[in-house]
Amino acid sequence: NTCGCNSDDTKDGCYRCLYGYHNSYERLHVSRRTAAKLLTEIVGHQGKLKSIQSIGEVVANNSLFDSELERRFIEALRRKPSDGSPRFVVKEEIVRGKPGYFVKAAENLWRIEPQVELGTDKGVTIYCKPDFVFWPDTASGRLPIAVFMDGWQYHKDRIGDDIAKRMAIARSGKFTVWSLTYDDIAICLEPGGSKPETPWDKAFMSGGDATPMYQRFGVVEQKNFHVLTAFEQFRSRLLGLTDEQLQRIGVVLTMRVGAVPYQSGDFVEINASSAGQTLANLPVFSWPTSPDLGRCWSSTDKQFQIAVQANKADLQGLPSDIANRMMQPCVVLRWADNPTVVDGERRRLLQQWWHAANLLLPLTNTWAVADTECNLAPLSASPVFQAFSGMTAEWEEAAAYAASEVQGLLATLFADGVVAPVVGYQMMDVSGCVVAESELAWTEKKVAVLLAGAEGAVFESQGWKLVFVGDAGLDTTLREHLKE
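Request: output the structure for the sequence above.
Response:
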């Protein structure tokens, strides 16, 4: 406040008080008045200030961590990168009726919409709300990207749920998904710190030059893509890396992890885990029949695993048909329930897990799963699997609107050749008023499925046969009713 520029209404800072030659690119966002206001507010709470070792200590325990992380993410997009790649133009703009951003990444134009609700109407079978969706304006070969900012304090107790939601987005066929953590953003805004770790050097098989493999899949220019931070990789996507190129990179990475002779014993642990059982109960999941290649790699303390199985014959034709799920390697990314791993170590390993997931989820035969709180049953209705299974329009509509609790049941019934049900059936009385509701109904047979806790007396009084979600033997009982 004592600087001479304070008396000049046309100036909002100068080199004596605030400006630095290194921040000339950010000059439009530098304000002496704003800085003075913020510092005055901080000094006003001087008696409550406590000494800490690093700013990360504050962020990790701040209840506002996620909203702060979102602001830091936009700031990171604005920053001039240190690797010499083009600087992005980021401007505030109304996007789809809400405050958002316009981004120009070289010749690629994107619009950023914050806090987007994704559900079955958009092909996402598990409702979620990404922090941002990047909508491509001129970026060809790329679906919209749903971006999540993962603050450890808020997300550490909901990892399984996070994984299920991001799987649903990745299998929508309408969006891709990308996850970033505080550490991914911090290394951009605070250069000189420790670079976030990746799992690849540990997971890759030792020995051999991988260049021929990258050449075979047409991505030799990206042979070092996996060593970049997740934020650097994301910038590359905005600058022009296509979804197909990302799939090709993913295939090479899986082969660098698992291209060794298959031995069934390597997969006993992962198949017996809670995550493995979740996949085994999913009608749309299966390991390859008679695989030639396969390996299951485990991280420190077996907190997560990357399991790969593949057939050599399929791999031969894959470069020319990269999107063919039945030819792609089958990859399982498992996050284990391991209570012996301390909080700080879990955070470090989760950083690595999401780094791997970002690069492997573009492959439609990659399965991300956790031991706990990871309900993948709704995935059976995902558009990617519906298209493959040949569902009729009636079944696709049923799968799109039914509750998550019955998605697994629907997939089983479709496979059995059952007629598609009416979803959200409402029974009317003579005056046209709704007197009862069911989640699924076969009106001609007077058979209905009700969610747990629902009232079924009205249906029963009209001669309907009911089954309730959660009842033992639900599948068998329902089939018997439908056959009558």
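The longest strand covers residues 434-442.
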